[in-house]
């Protein structure tokens, strides 16, 4: 009876040992197969995400360039206030000069008109 029990125990141990060896021998290949399966399923989606991200990056770079250009334009506009003040002063000066010229021409015209009237009146009276 002990012989049979011993054989049963030896058989169990060898079966367990064989099973363990089988699992150890095949586990890496099963793991690699599962990994390969996972990559095969998820890779197209990952590639699509990558191309989407690259497209968004290009669009973002374009938008960033546009915003930076707009910011530099606004900064240059704030720096140009000095030039606009200068232009404003020159325009006011030009308007003032134009008004002075207009008033002096108006005086000349009035004096010339009155001078012509005096000359014309004298000719009339002297002719008669």
The total of beta strands comes to 0
Largest sheet: none
Helix content bin: over 70%
- Broad structural category: mainly alpha
What is the residue-averaged pLDDT?
A: 85
- Calculate Rg over CA atoms: 52 Å
Shape: rod-shaped
Count of runs of 4 or more consecutive helical residues: 2
Which regions are unreliable across 5 or more consecutive residues at pLDDT < 50? Answer: none
Distance between the termini: 178 Å
Portion in beta strands: under 5%
N-to-C SSE string, H for helix and E for strand: HH
Structure description:
- 98% of the residues lie in helices and 0% in strands.
- The protein is rod-shaped, with a radius of gyration of 52 Å.
- It is built from two helices and no strands.
- By secondary structure, the protein is mainly α.
- The chain has helices spanning 2-79, 81-127.
- The model has no long low-confidence stretch (mean pLDDT 85).
């Amino acid at each position: 009876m002990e012989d049979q029990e011993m054989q049963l125990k030896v058989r169990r141990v060898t079966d367990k040992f064989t099973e363990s060896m089988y699992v150890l021998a095949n586990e890496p290949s099963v793991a690699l197969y599962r990994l390969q399966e996972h990559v095969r399923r998820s890779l197209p989606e990952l590639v699509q995400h990558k191309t989407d991200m690259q497209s968004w990056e290009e669009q973002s770079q374009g938008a960033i360039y546009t915003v930076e250009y707009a910011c530099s334009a606004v900064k240059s506009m704030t720096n140009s206030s000095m030039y606009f003040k200068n232009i404003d002063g020159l325009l006011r000066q030009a308007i003032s000069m134009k008004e002075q010229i207009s008033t002096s021409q108006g005086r000349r015209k009035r004096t010339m008109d009155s001078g012509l009237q005096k000359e014309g009146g004298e000719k009339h009276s002297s002719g008669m």
